[in-house]
Structure formats: C-alpha cells, structure tokens
Amino acid sequence: MPTIPDAMVPALKERMRKLNQLPEEDPVGTERKLLALACEIMNRLIRGQVRKTAVSLPTQEAVMLLPKRPAAPGSVLYLHGGGYCTGGAEYAACFGRLIASVAKTRTFCPAYRLAPEHPFPAALEDALDAYRYLLETYPGEKICLIGESAGGGLLYALCLKCRELGLPQPAGLVAISPWTDLTLSGASYEYNREADPSMTQEKLQIFARDYTDRPEDPLCSPLFGDLSGLPACRIFVGGDEIMLEDSLRMAKALEAAGVPVTLTVAEGFWHAYIFYGIRSRRTDNKAICEFIRSRLA
Q1: CATH architecture type of domain 6-296
Q2: Sheet holding 261-266: strands in order across?
Q3: Which of 11, 21, 56, 232 is the most buried (most CB within 10 A)?
C-alpha cells in the first residue's frame, strides 16, 4: 500500500490544526471536514483492491468489503469513529477499505445511527445487530472487531453487551485511539491540549452531551465497566492526543482484569494516526494484520 512520507507530516498537522480552529459553535461541521480530509487521503492510497457489497440491516446500511486474496478466514467488524455524531456509510467504507486491504480479511462496515437524532443506546443496538449478522455466518472465534475513536469505545461496549446477553465473544479486538471515557476525566486533556492538532476537549464535550446523559454508564464509557472475560486486545494511540489517557487507563484496566493487551503509543502523532498512511508507522499496520490473522487462524 502506498504511504505518506514523514516529510509531509508537519504540513498535515498544520492543516488539521487550522480545521480545528474553525468556530466551535459548529463542532459537527468541523469534525466532518476532518473526516473528509482523512477519506481524501485514504482514497488516494487505496485503489481497486477490494470488492464492495451493500447490505441492508433493519436500522442501518452496511457494506461488506472483500480483498482480492483473503489471507484469513472469518471477518472483521469495523466500527467507525466520529464522536457518535458524525461518520456514516461513506466514511465507514473508506476506512474499511484500508482495513480490508491491509489485513487481507473480509471487513463488514455498518453505518450505525448517529446522535443527536439517535442518542444512546442507538449506536450500541446497531453494533449489536451488525455483530449478530456476522454470527449467522461465522462463530465468534472467527470474528475480530476493529474500531477507532468512538468506534474504539463502542467495540468494548459491544463486548460488555454480548456478555450480558450470553452471546459469544469475538476472537480479538483492535482499538485505535479509543474513546473509552465520555466523562472526559483523563489528565491528557490538559497536558496534551496544545500538542494535539486533531481534537479539542470542547468538541468532545458537545459530542458526549449529544450522545448520552449518562456518560458514566459502562456501556457509554467502558473504562468504568467490568472488563473480565473480554478477548485479547491491541490498542494504538498517538502520543500527542488529548485522549491519550483513555487508552493508557483502558490498557491498565484490561490488564488488571486478566485480559491480554498490548499498547502502542506513537510519540508525536495524533488521533487515529494509523489511517493516514504515515511511512514511519507502517509497522503498526503490519502488527494489526498479524494480530488479526493470529486470532482468526
């Protein structure tokens, strides 16, 4: 897969920073511009490497993406980010194509309902429907979950809900810059405030408020849940993120609950950096690929 040279990273950071300086009275609009930038980059990097099939679920649209030469059995369920308020089908399919091409695995991308029109538990219900759809074809041990940002928190909430309902757990989890604490209590909101070019605390406060009036609920903020029995997990996070502590504390909580977890902190990088195809971080893409293959084998 083509990559972006590290020499372009400063210009990319500056473009993000300018987008984040737009008036915060329109945080949803700002976030959609950032997601469009990310999709623009990904669409340039990935061309014609996957086939797409549309799938209709009761409350959401979805696509199944199939790489030319699948290297692993089973399927990935990808839950997109966007603060539970932005994203949608096009965005999910854009980053889903990257996952399918890198991991060489079938990738199912649902476009779950978004807040504020559809607050909690709509996103969780839709994620559960998507997982049940895959369970009709594959056993749990042949499904891996991948999510970034809000989708990274949602995949943990989905596992908690599956345990509550007695459904099989997936084979493994890959969380990319997961938003695991909607109360925004992490110390990195202060110590990374100036360093993060991609996100603001004010924007996240609005997203959290639009999504739920119970941010401390473990199904909204899985950091506060009982994590015992969850599948093995890989977490990737940028060292400059204001949400860095969401990943650091989640990794500690998973480890304390007896869950195998590996944390990667990319120093100097931003929120969901993996999806920008930075050349020096190719090893992270390789690690995701190897993890998925090993869990689905």
Answers
A1: 3-Layer(aba) Sandwich (3.40)
A2: 50-57, 60-67, 106-111, 75-79, 143-148, 172-176, 233-238, 261-266
A3: 232
- Would you write out the chain's pLDDT as a tens digit for each of its 297 residues? 557 788 988 888 888 888 776 655 666 766 667 677 667 666 666 655 788 899 999 999 999 999 887 777 899 999 999 999 998 888 888 888 888 887 889 999 999 999 999 999 999 999 999 999 999 999 999 999 999 999 999 999 999 999 999 999 999 999 999 999 999 999 999 999 999 998 989 889 999 999 999 999 999 999 999 999 999 999 999 999 999 999 999 999 999 999 999 999 999 999 999 888 788 998 998 999 899 999 998
Q: Identify whether 118 is a catalytic site residue.
A: no
Side chain identity at residue 225, one-letter code: G
> Is residue 101 flagged as an active site residue?
no
Select which of 31, 148, 241, 245 is catalytic: 241
Q: Is 141 known to be catalytic?
A: no
Which run of H or E residues covers position 176? strand 172-176
Residue in 149, 177, 188, 198 annotated catalytic? 149
| Domain boundary assignment for the chain | 6-296
